[in-house]
Specification:
Length: about 220
Amino acid sequence: MLILMPTKKAEDWRSGLADPRKQWKAGRSAKLMADTWERHRPALPPEISRVLSGSPVSGLTPLLAMPEYQVPLPGGTTSSQNDVFLLGAVDDGSAVIMVEGKVDEPFGDTMTEWLKEGSKGKRERLNYFTDRLGLAGDPPDDIRYQLLHRTASAIIEAKRFHARYAVMLVHSFSPAHAWFDDYAAFVKLLGGTPENGGVGMIPGHAEPELWIGWAHGLDR
């Protein structure tokens, strides 16, 4: 059970960061996410609403959002720390949305880098991801590990909350849309069609239905 206190201002998000001193800086994703989401509450940031308008989650009523939300994963002690967990209501049920904020930071290690020092725990975790994401085998070497566990987190929590939809969104604040190519490669791996500024369904997922999207922050 989690016992949580509501935020009152963007600065309240800082305490949940893995490294508050290093990550909380003007122009970086952690602070931009906090500023943007707090500024528009109780509504969603408009760029998030625009992206969701292309899915069954269009018109979502936000119920609760939790910054720096951790989802435990098998094969080790490190959880997936999601920038925002969003639970919302839609006409035919509910949706869990995991949001990953980015400026020019990459999506973590490539699979080659992550598996460099292989272990039994990493193999257990990777098998868990491939099963949850419906992959036939290990992802290609250049796929970014962070995208795997962020998307798996959406599915895990959607199941836990009995939500009909699981959504993983990238909230990008990069004018150049940095690292979109890596995101696109991941979406294609899952059998989807990547859209810069849009959202698409990933085939083969019914309970919950899986959608992945890329939103432009700061109305870009």
